[in-house]
Amino acid sequence: MLRSLTVRGFALLEDVQVEFEPGLNVVTGETGAGKSLLVNAIGFLLGERADATRVRSGATEASVEGIFEIPPGRARDEAFRVIEEKTGTRPEDDGIIALSRTLDASGRSRAFVCNRFLTRETLREIASYLLTVHGQKEHSTLARTQVQREKLDTFAGLDAVDGLRSKFAQKRTVAMAAWRELSELRRAERNRLDRLDLLRFQAGEIRGADIKNGELKKLKEDYQTLSNAERIRTRLSNHLESLHESESSALERISSARRAMQELAQLAPALAPLADRLEESRLQIDDVVSETRRFAESLDFDSARLAEITDRLDRVQRILDRFKVDEAGAIALQNEMESEIAKLSASWERGEALEVQLKSMLEELFVTGCKLTAARAAAAPKLSAAVLESLRGLEMEGAHFQVALRELERTPLSAADAVLADESLANLPPAMAEPDTLVKSNASGFDDIYFLIAPNPGEPAQPIGEIASGGELARVALAIESACAERVSTPIILFDEIDENVGGRLGPTLGVHLRKVAEPRQVLVVTHLAGVAACADHHLFVSKSVRDGRTQTQVESLEFDERIHEIAAMMTGDGASETAVAEARALIQSVNRKAFDEWTAMEAQGELKPRGKGKTGSKSKAAKAVRAKK
Fold it and tell me: Across the chain, which distance is largest between two alpha carbons, in Å?
């Protein structure tokens, strides 16, 4: 249960502390007093979005804190599991969970559980195990097929995180991804084969050329040398003669000058180093002559070798020109092509393996979907019976209500369900057959759910959205909510003005329904109906006042005498009228006899006294009138 709620700086809720009790808690108050604001504060605490406008003018931040006491069971186990996984700490075994959330003036929020920071997503996950909300506009959306499916699944317990519907959705997502990949592989098959042929040809050309880094430069040098072999040899022969072989060769002249320099060095010692340098020059020229002679002797015109070099040069140059690369680029391009060839070759193998996997996925999906359909089919008559029972109590005794299952219509995956990388392909026919298991399903299974009703005997049942009376639709929605609420696993249920369009005459009946729902859990109800308020175990009154020139909302718990006057005001608008008070007292006595007897006994013994104003401010006009008399 929600034990307490503390709200500060949240719009008109300047500083409000609210204590809740087990069983049925009702919240009443005049229109505009702030009942919905209280619901919004609870919603914000449990992870709903809120912008900076919720921060009270003049405040630096808004804050909401709730103390939850969760009884042993699945809800506590799952909430504790999430808290421990996300924060590394585990709440005490007494089941107390302290949640808090703040919102600053810039719109940023922070959330904490047991004083540990957590994300909004984690907060919402924890909240899903604590509280279920049924909003005031439920009946306006009830005509939607997906909403009807949600109601049936809630009633059947199929909407759990680890339930059949979740398993089906997961399996279908995986199967859809596999089908899309396989379809794209098959669609691209022709292009794949053409590309593979081209790559194999081009990579074969480069591979066959066996190009080496720096080879082109070497080939050009060899070609230049070999094609001019005779000319080179002739000119080298002439130079060798001038350097070494003739009587007046350079080598002979240097030798003669060296000898003369050595003789003169005896007379002028400074010439000795110059003679040595001439000797070094002679030795270098002699070495050049030797290497040149060897090169000339090795140089021989070879037409076959020249043709070989020419062919090789043409082949390498043609490859490089064709692909507009150098030798290193050609080698890199060959590696890239061979890598793509391997990838394209493997895609066929991937497609073959994917076909086998997809077949297995679809079989598992079909089995899971059939189990989901069977579970819905089993739950449908039970929900129908539960709703009919509630409708009889809501003065629709002759109504007929039925939950019907119908197979989903075929929806082409290529047009509606597939999300292709290239949107221009969305309207093309699929490259392979669309599996029936996918085209006849959605993320929720194989079924459409229809709620059919005949409000009056003898009339044919029609889809619920086609019935004429808004009041009847509201009552049907209430009956469905009541039936589903009894199957909700959360320990707290919040009904936010779901009695809209329901007349006051039906209030007591609705209140009895809500008391039944509240037997195993805590129920919070925001209501305008006196009959609902009379059934409460705990009554909270919301009012609005002006203090120091500023408007603020108060929330207070009403004692028995204050409750009577508030219910009287809800019935007639005059909580001080003796007639209205008597009617309110009689109403409580008729619908809440046990509590009425306990209160009257305490009243007779003088044990029942109204509470002081306290921190939250004044009560209703009727409650203040009672105090004035006392």
Answer: 156
Q: Is the dihedral of CA 75, 81, 87, 88 positive or negative?
A: positive
CA 525, CA 323: separation in Å to the nearest integer? 77
In angstroms, how far is the first alpha carbon of the chain from the final one?
35
Q: Could you count the other beta carbons within 10 Å of the beta carbon of residue 464?
A: 20
Tell me the residue type at 355.
E
591 sits in the region (left: phi over 0; alpha: psi -120 to 50; else beta) called alpha
- CA separation for the pair 434, 403 (Å, rounded): 30
- pLDDT of res. 378: 95
Contacting residues for 391 by C-beta, under 8 A, at least 6 apart: 397, 399, 401, 475, 476, 479
Range among 72-76, 175-179, 238-242, 262-266 with highest mean pLDDT value: 175-179
Helix H or strand E segment including 271: none
d(CA 448, CA 471): 26
Distance between CA 472 and CA 462 in Å, rounded? 13
Alpha-carbon span 336 to 330, nearest angstrom: 10
d(CA 149, CA 447): 8
Helix (H, G, I), strand (E, B) or coil at 127: helix
Number of helical H runs and strand E runs in the chain: 21, 15
- Looking at residue 15, its pLDDT comes to 94
Burial class (CB in 10 A: 0-12, 13-18, 19+), 76: buried
Mean pLDDT, residues 237-259 taken together: 67
Neighbours of 534 (CB within 10 A): 29
Q: What backbone torsions phi and psi does residue 64 show, to the nearest 5 degrees?
A: -135, 130
Question: Which ranges of 299-326 does DSSP label H, i.e. alpha helix?
Answer: 303-323
pLDDT band with cut points at 50, 70 and 90 for residue 627: very low
How many angstroms separate the CA atoms of 102 and 41, rounded?
A: 11
Mean pLDDT (whole number) for 356-360: 91
For 180-192, what is the mean pLDDT?
Answer: 75
Closest CA to 515 of 505, 527, 503: 527
Block residue for tokens 């808690």: 25
Distance CA 173, CA 469 (A): 41
CB of 117 closer than 8 Å to CB of 110: yes
Per-residue pLDDT of 85-132, as tens digits, reads 888 888 887 889 999 999 999 999 999 998 899 999 999 989 988 988
Sheet containing 400-407: give its strands across: 400-407, 447-454, 462-463
HSE on the CB side for 142, CA within 13 Å? 30
Q: Which pair of tokens denotes residue 536?
A: 């409460």
SS3 of 46-106: the string is: CCCCCCHHHECCCCCEEEEEEEEECCCCHHHHHHHHHHHHHHCCCCCCCCEEEEEEEEECC
The whole-angstrom distance between residue 472's C-alpha and the CA centroid of its chain comes to: 38
Helix/strand/coil percent split, the chain, to 5: 55, 15, 25
DSSP string, 593-627: HHHHHHHHHHHHTT---PPP--TT----HHHHHHH
